[in-house]
Amino acid sequence: QVQLVESGGGLVQPGGSLTLSCAASGSIYIINSMGWYRQAPGKERELVALIYGGSRTNYADSVKGRFTISRDNAKNTAYLQMNSLKPEDTAVYYCNADVIVDYDVDDFDFWGQGTQVTVSS
């Protein structure tokens, strides 16, 4: 139905920057929101950033002022610009989209496969 593909992860030094991309494809009518989550080994998945209702955004306290979420609606793509990266940001980052599928009236959550971000010197 709907697929989300993340890209842009990798290894970066503390203080560095990285940009993640999430491309959504499939039977999409409307994307209500897109978000980035992350999960470190042995920990629960947590919300990092969310964009919804046009250009409204929410961020985890730990990333405010450092991360920026954005969307290109024409491309059904979300981005996460990560600046001033810290070792504590190391995790697998997952893209999420709340989607109204074509010819349906309900919305569904879809998840990408995840991309590894490692912040280390």
The gist of it:
The chain has 121 residues and is an all-beta fold. It is built from no helices and eleven strands. Strands 2, 4, 5, 6, 9, 10 and 11 form a seven-stranded mixed sheet that branches. Strands 1-3-8-7 form a four-stranded antiparallel sheet, with no helix packed on it.
Describe this structure as you would to a colleague.
By secondary structure, the chain is mostly beta strands. Helix content is 0%, strand content 61%. Strands 2, 4, 5, 6, 9, 10 and 11 form a seven-stranded mixed β-sheet that branches. A hairpin with a 5-residue loop joins strand 9 and strand 10 (107-111). The mean pLDDT is 96.
Label the overall shape: elongated
Q: What is the straight-line distance between the termini? A: 40 Å
- Radius of gyration (CA) equals 14 Å
Q: What structural class is derived from the secondary structure elements?
A: mainly beta
Q: What's the total count of β strands?
A: 11
The ordered string of helix (H) and strand (E) elements is EEEEEEEEEEE
| Main β sheet profile | 7 strands, mixed
- Summed up, the helix count is 0
Mean pLDDT: 96
